[in-house]
């Protein structure tokens, strides 16, 4: 589980976003919310979020599995807020594709029982880049409802990665390392392909 201060910060952010979206005009807020829900289903975003969930189970102690998704979500929201204000970085799409490659490499390293000391900072950096992209594409209907949408989808995708990794560990314990490494190679290779297409 993530530590309590981080959980409280995330909870406050989500409640604030929900309150803001509730004040949005009918229709506009709903439109933005659904745009937010669908935005993380781009292949680069989807793979990154699922990878973080899998990595968290594979690399972190059982009582800290939530730290990976919590770190991603907090950095994602910060990056999105900055993106909505017009902040950007050069070659953003290239770096997002490379973040998928990095997360894939992290899965391979996790399968080899490598120490995860750099994992959370890399997750925070990658999530901030993904957030900048989300924020820069905020709809005219407003940021708050849109942010609630992509926050929820991101959390579900993280949860999917966590559940997949737990299932692999439970049902295929002797193959879990190989499967995690194979997924890392698949995700990383996809990130490299996406980078080559930009």
Provide the structure class. Answer: mainly alpha
Helical segment tally?
8
Q: Enumerate the spans where pLDDT stays under 50 for 5 or more consecutive residues.
A: 13-29
In whole angstroms, the N-to-C terminal distance is 37 Å
Radius of gyration: 17 Å
Number of domains: 1
Provide the helix percentage: over 70%
The fraction of residues in strands falls at under 5%
Order of helices and strands: HHHHHHHH
Bulk shape: globular
Average residue-wise pLDDT? 85
- Main sheet? none
Counting DSSP E segments of at least 2 residues, the number of strands comes to 0
Can you offer a commentary on this structure?
It is a single chain. With 198 residues, this protein is mainly α. It has one domain. It contains 8 helices and no strands. The chain has helices spanning 4-22, 28-38, 43-59, 67-84, 92-111, 119-136, 143-171, 176-196. Helix 1 packs across helix 7, helix 3 packs across helix 7 and helix 4 (67-84) packs parallel to helix 6 (119-136). The radius of gyration is 17 Å and the shape is globular.
Task: Give keywords.
198 residues
Summarize the structure.
This protein is mostly helical and 198 residues long. The protein has helices spanning 4-22, 28-38, 43-59, 67-84, 92-111, 119-136, 143-171, 176-196. The protein is globular and about 50 Å long.
Task: Annotate the secondary structure layout.
Layout: H1 4-22, H2 28-38, H3 43-59, H4 67-84, H5 92-111, H6 119-136, H7 143-171, H8 176-196
Helix pairs in contact: 1-4, 1-7, 2-7, 3-4, 3-5, 3-7, 3-8, 4-6, 4-7, 5-6, 5-8
């Amino acid at each position: 589980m993530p530590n309590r201060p981080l959980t409280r910060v995330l909870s406050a952010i989500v409640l604030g976003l929900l309150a803001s979206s509730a004040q949005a005009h009918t229709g506009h807020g709903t439109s933005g919310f659904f745009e937010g829900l669908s935005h993380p289903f781009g292949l680069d975003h989807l793979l990154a979020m699922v990878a973080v969930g899998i990595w968290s189970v594979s690399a972190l102690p059982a009582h800290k599995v939530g730290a990976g998704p919590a770190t991603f979500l907090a950095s994602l929201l910060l990056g999105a807020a900055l993106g909505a204000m017009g902040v950007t970085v050069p070659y953003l799409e290239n770096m997002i594709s490379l973040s998928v490659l990095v997360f894939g490499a992290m899965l391979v390293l996790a399968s080899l029982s490598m120490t995860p000391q750099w994992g959370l900072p890399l997750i925070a950096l990658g999530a901030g880049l993904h957030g900048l992209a989300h924020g820069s594409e905020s709809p005219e209907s407003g940021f708050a409802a849109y942010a609630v949408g992509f926050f929820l989808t991101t959390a579900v995708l993280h949860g999917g990665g966590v559940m997949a990794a737990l299932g692999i560990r439970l049902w295929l314990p002797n193959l879990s390392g190989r499967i995690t490494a194979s997924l890392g190679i698949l995700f990383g290779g996809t990130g490299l392909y996406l980078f080559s297409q930009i």
